[in-house]
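Re: weekly structure request thread

Next one in the queue (363 aa):
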Amino acid sequence: MTIIIFILIFLFLGSIIFYTYLNESGKHRFIRIIKFLFKVLFVIVFPVIFLRVADVSSNDCCLDTAVFSPEHKLTVYVLISISIISYFIGSYRKEIFSPVLEVLLNSLLIIGLVLDVLILIQITWGEWSGLGFIFCSPIAVLFIRVLNQNHKLLLSYIEESGFEPKSKIEKFACEILISRNKFLYLLILCFPLLFLIASALILFGQKPDSMIRAFTETYRQGFSQLDYMCENVECGGHFLCSVAAKGHHNVVKPERYGERLGKPIICNRQLLVANAFEELIWKKAPRLHNIIRRNYNKVGDCIHKYYYLFNNKYIADTIYILMKPLEYIFIFTLYTLMKNPENIIEMQYLSKKERSEIDRLRD
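Done, posted below.
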């Protein structure tokens, strides 16, 4: 991951320097092709790479978490796609459109610009703070340049051709396009456009407010509103076994106290075996362990959300009984693959001091 980030930063800085040189060059065909490729790099390639690397498929309190809410990210992705298409249409069209289409195009460009700023805030105050400006700043600059270019082209066209609107709609659109407050009016017109896009996306399972939820229903990002769900979540814990250990003593049979993240916990045989099994997987197959842990942490989110239910002793007893078959599988695996499985089991959830003392006695 670190290597990928450094490569992207290197490419970004190199691209800025080279693109600046190209802008100072002439209109040679080769130069135009290179400039087009760099626009593709800034507006398409870098964002796609970032979303592939950073926007994981789930909210997670302990591991990498989604930049956009998994349930609502389709709305953001559609807006990004529309913005990119609008940018390249605005950059490479050969003639001025009708006033109504000009208003539509410029409004979509402003949606893209605002979306870029929102994404910048989302990732700059989130877990990807170092990459926010690298990915978002060039896009903002390019979109502003196209908006400015469109404005100049339109004024030049009206002045040279003496264009006169033929209908009330065209007249209204022209008044917006030549107004000093053009960008404010275009920003206001973005709202009905967003409403139409949101209405269409309802057919694909999105909600009317998915544009907002995509940013807010996340963990540890700029606009996140679900950070409270990660409070007191014990990352790396065996949630089901920990709950089961809180059942009636004659059922779950607690053996001793242990320590996890500096806090005392009740340990029974089932919890110790489960943690020993995870340690085995972590050592033998770390990639498999990461996949299992990522999905298992979702169980922890559910337990934390409905903790008042799982804190009931009868429910804890039930979970303990349901986990018994897995416990036997864990024990069989430990005895098959390890020389001294009981020693490993007994080492689980000991404090650092206790572990150090045991290691000293072994030496």
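The chain has two domains: 2-229, 239-362. The chain has a mean pLDDT of 80.
Next request, please.
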